[in-house]
Amino acid sequence: MINPNIKRYVEQEILPRYDHHDAAHRRDHALTVIEQSAAIVHMLQQQGLSVDENMAYVVAAYHDTGLCEGRERHHEVSARIIREDEHLRQWFSAEQIELMADAAEDHRASSGHEPRSLYGRIVAEADRVIDAVTIIRRTVQYGLDNYPDLDGEGQYERALAHLRQKYGVGGYLRLWLEDSPNAKRLEQLRELIACPGKLRPIFDEVYAHETAENHKTGA
Predict the structure, then answer these.
(1) Most buried one in 38, 56, 93, 129, CB count within 10 A?
(2) What are the CA-CA distances from residue 210 to residues 24, 137, 139, 161, 199 (Å)?
């Protein structure tokens, strides 16, 4: 069970930071990663591995806090935020804080190297929300927030290029845990990416919804 004091601090002081991020990385994303991280911790504990669920919880909660300073080095900034958060010293040793910071730094899919610890592998896996519609929606949201001058066709081409580069066969995304439920879902997503005739209708529906939402909010 997560320490209620840690949970209260995270909910009051850390999760609200996500409300200022782009639409693809707001609080709902952080909560999803926390939920998936908890499920992975349970799976590993069932396999007999010793995993500190409080540490895994903190890593998941902080993993994208560094987006406040931009996307390119956000993983490094997230690690720095963990190291500099004096409140965490109430509950964790210096060694545990360093381990959590390393895990947050290692979570990025494009890092090109395997996470240095089990906690890094857990958050990296939890961050891979491999659900086709969710991924397409987050890709569209990111495109609308960061490339607002692109028209619908331009957004589609950008989204398709990103999906191929990250999730396609030979893409940079890697799964770091054996028996991951993401493995089968990644294969299904790759089949979808390889068939634009099936992908395009999903994109069009998501794009229409997201542009309508942006229009409502005046974005």
Answers:
(1) 56
(2) 11, 8, 11, 19, 17
Structure tokens at 80: 């720095």
Domains and CATH numbers, the chain: 4-127 (1.10.3210.10), 132-217 (no CATH)
pTM of the model: 0.74
Q: What is the dihedral of CA 148, 64, 37, 105, to 10 degrees?
A: 130
pLDDT in tens, 74-118: 999 999 999 999 999 999 999 999 999 999 999 876 556 789 999
- Judged by phi (left if over 0) then psi (alpha if -120 to 50, else beta), residue 112 lies in left
Cα-Cα end-to-end distance for the chain: 40
pLDDT in tens, 131-173: 899 899 989 999 999 999 999 999 999 999 999 999 999 998 8
